[in-house]
Amino acid sequence: MEDFKQGLLEGKKRAAARLISMGENGQQEALDVIKELYHKTGNAYVIGVTGPPGAGKSTLTDKLVKVCRAAGHKVGVIAVDPTSPFTGGAILGDRIRMSDLNTDPGVFIRSMGARGNLGGISEATGVAVDVLDIYGCEYIFVETVGVGQSEVDIVKSCDTTLMVMVPGLGDDIQAIKAGVMEIGDVFVINKADRDGAEKTAREIRMMLEFNKNEWNPPVNMAIAVENQGIKELLDSIFEHREYMTGSGKGHVRRVENRKSELLTIVKERMTRKLFEKTYNGEVIDDLSQKVAKKETDPYSAAEMILEKINMN
Amino acid sequence: MEDFKQGLLEGKKRAAARLISMGENGQQEALDVIKELYHKTGNAYVIGVTGPPGAGKSTLTDKLVKVCRAAGHKVGVIAVDPTSPFTGGAILGDRIRMSDLNTDPGVFIRSMGARGNLGGISEATGVAVDVLDIYGCEYIFVETVGVGQSEVDIVKSCDTTLMVMVPGLGDDIQAIKAGVMEIGDVFVINKADRDGAEKTAREIRMMLEFNKNEWNPPVNMAIAVENQGIKELLDSIFEHREYMTGSGKGHVRRVENRKSELLTIVKERMTRKLFEKTYNGEVIDDLSQKVAKKETDPYSAAEMILEKINMN
Predict the structure, then answer these.
(1) Tens digit of pLDDT for each residue in B273-300?
(2) Looking at residue B89, what is its pLDDT?
(3) CATH number at residue A243
(4) Is the same domain home to B282 and B162?
(5) Looking only at Cα atoms, what is the longest distance across chain A?
(6) Which residues in chain B are closer than 8 Å to A251, comparing Cβ atoms?
(7) Partner-chain contact B262 A301, CB within 8 Å
(8) Does a structural domain hold residue A34?
(9) What single Pfam family name could you report for this chain, choosing any that match (chains A, B) (predicted)?
(10) Is there a contact between A176 and B175 (Cβ–Cβ < 8 Å)?
(11) Contacts with B, A 224-243, CB within 8 Å
């Protein structure tokens, strides 16, 4: 454990990588290292990047990272796919596009997938953010694949959330869950050379009107593949950062973020315990069969399960 | 308790209404009644109605109910709004539109809202479905307001799920979460007289192509306010029912539904316990503050909470 601690403090990539993997596998040792070094976190600025599949989040992140690198900053990228057991690595292509950053010693790239349905992805992502923060990254981009609840939970612990959209395409249905919009601090219409970009921007501005707040999220335009609008987008992100710091809202947000993070960790662990204590869900399967046969009812079955896990 | 049991078995509306309210308030007595009568469930056919806000789900449900009524069936309607603490009753208008059914003794209408963030809405909905099933409803429509995770959990316990869509409107962004599409057994484009109805139908068919299955969800057209396409839609629902029964998949689905229902109840109760055992979340608030001040770290804080609720 001392080795990892030392390695991380000295900014050794290998130590960071190993700790993140250990966190993913739920190894207590990784958590012990972070616990001891937690007071060293808080220097990284964490930017969440989310939006519907196909919006070009990876390319956009890639370009944003390059601007940060040009300014000499140490950067971390965490790409999270909570749905990976289902998509079966279909998003791997997205990751590869970032590969020319892979050889840059000032960039740490990591992708995280869900390992089954026991939860834990949010906690593992939190561990990775903390590790990269201590490791010395000044900016950490947390990119998610979709816009579901897990993604919302994940970006909820970021300092600024960037919502990436695309102009409405013929065959593409905008995959935006009502309510997800509210988590965007900064919006960008990527692929802005496509038809309908202005219309999409107008629609988003209109939706934001309903949610009026002191901070009015800017709606940027970008063409990531052509490196257009990237610096302006980063400026928007920095404006949000300044607003949050200047207004004192940054502190309030950080407390809220920590609470959301904490609740997510607790719920994930509760779900894991639920499966462990029911023989990997076997008890739940058996009881479902019994309910279906009406040998018992769902409420008695739930009580039995809760009793088994001492939550009654 | 005997009174309620008796009343429900005799098909007394008041008994059903009271039991549903008691279930909403988490009163054990309601669950005790259902437990005793659970063997009498399974006669109702449960149809989930979901889709983005503004798709006209309530009007469509209203018309479908009227067709069922014309055939002499006893019908239940449960309108669920998991987000009601936030929308503040904005959907009440939807409910009122169904009011001319309210005077029909053969229809039982009930709306359910979330009572805070402690969860429990899925369980309360399950209770309502069971009560109306025992009460003698042959068809139960479970209508949800949005298309979020809670809605998915709710319609997951239905026999047939109807997904209501609308043609793409200028200012309207289709609020469909990627992944939500899969839960639709039957699709309908409502307000089909609007521009782009055929285009929307094509888009949906294309999305369904990716998810090919033995059952190919039909995509219907309807104009609910003009009562157009309603009988055909109900026929599609019945076709799905026949397919499920004929192929034996109905049984498999029911077991899966019961499992999903059971897991949801267990998780909702775990979350409730979590809040109860942490003094309504006070412990969590305090610990979040401490983490933000770095007096502790999220992992130690999570462990403290889990220890407090005996889930460590």
Answers:
(1) 898 888 878 999 999 999 999 999 999 9
(2) 37
(3) 3.40.50.300
(4) no
(5) 67
(6) 292
(7) yes
(8) no
(9) MeaB
(10) yes
(11) none
